[in-house]
Amino acid sequence: MSKPRTYQTEAVIIKKTKLREADVIFTLYTPHLGKIQAFAKSVRKTKSKMAGHLELLTHSQVSLARGRNLDTIIGSQTINSFLPLKSDLWLTSCGLYITELVNQFTVDNVESLSLFQLLLESMKQLCRSGNRDLTLRYFELHLLDEVGYRPQLQQCVSCQKPLAPVVNSFSPEAGGMLCPDCAANHPSGHPLSVNAQKVLRLLQNSDYGTVERLKIDAGLSRELERVINSYLRYLLEREVKSAAWLDELREQMK
């Protein structure tokens, strides 16, 4: 049975690529189709009725017509515009960071409803007051879980022994924690304080309700960021562009 020529889907707009004078190729993350690419004609013109519903970091209901190579967006209606993410430069950068990670860690047309829900919930969390850095760390750890790169934080990945409450090391290459004895054979590992290990395990095994109640200082926050970012860079084999932009903004805000 052939597929209908037109269809609708919820989507978060995670990337826009300009094409010719006014056309755009959109990268959409959807609940049942995964990541898809779609074309919108003349959407950058001032008279376009769809433009406001297809902004980055917007959750929309999108109507599409199937095409030979790319499907064409023929209509869109905003479900949640996430205005706080667009009215604050720091929050905009946080939103672009998590959507960049989704784009980098996924391939086209692979469904993951749980990842779609994680993305939406993380965008909602960023709009609320609280520790946005912890929200990013939670998102990163659960994204890694969703895409099959869950780091081992409970035991040494080399000798398999439970980790003692001492300074242990995280090895991106090994995919998790190393005890002091095994860390000697992995000089590229990152030493982690006992508190950092506790927070990482809590984030990995909790929900956002727990994250909202968690209080950590700036030093511990930076320690967590450094170790997770090192793992992300290792897996992607490149820098995350929006992560560098977050670092620059943080320095400017001091």
Number of domains: 2
Series of H and E elements: EEEEEHHHHEEHEHHHH
Total DSSP helices: 9
Q: Using DSSP, what is the number of strands? A: 8
CATH superfamily membership of the largest domain: Recombination protein O, C-terminal domain
CATH architecture of the largest domain: Up-down Bundle
Mind describing the biggest β-sheet?
5 strands, mixed, barrel
Strand order of the largest sheet: 1-2-3-5-4
- Give the DSSP E fraction (strand runs of 2 or more residues): 15-25%
Question: Your description of this structure?
Answer:
The protein is α+β, with helices and mostly antiparallel strands and 254 residues long. 41% of the residues lie in helices and 22% in strands. It has nine helices and eight strands. It has helices at residues 83-86, 89-105, 113-127, 132-146, 180-183, 194-204, 208-213, 218-236, 241-253; strands at 6-19, 23-30, 34-40, 59-65, 71-80, 168-171, 176-178, 190-192. The strands form two sheets. A five-stranded mixed barrel has the order 1-2-3-5-4. A three-stranded antiparallel sheet has the order 7-6-8. A hairpin with a 4-residue loop joins strand 6 (168-171) and strand 7. Helix 2 runs antiparallel to helix 3 and helix 6 packs across helix 8. The termini are far apart.
How do the strands and helices of this protein lay out in sequence?
Elements: E1 6-19, E2 23-30, E3 34-40, E4 59-65, E5 71-80, H1 83-86, H2 89-105, H3 113-127, H4 132-146, E6 168-171, E7 176-178, H5 180-183, E8 190-192, H6 194-204, H7 208-213, H8 218-236, H9 241-253
Parallel strand pairs: 3-5
Antiparallel strand pairs: 1-2, 1-4, 2-3, 4-5, 6-7, 6-8
Helix pairs in contact: 2-3, 2-4, 2-9, 3-4, 4-8, 6-8
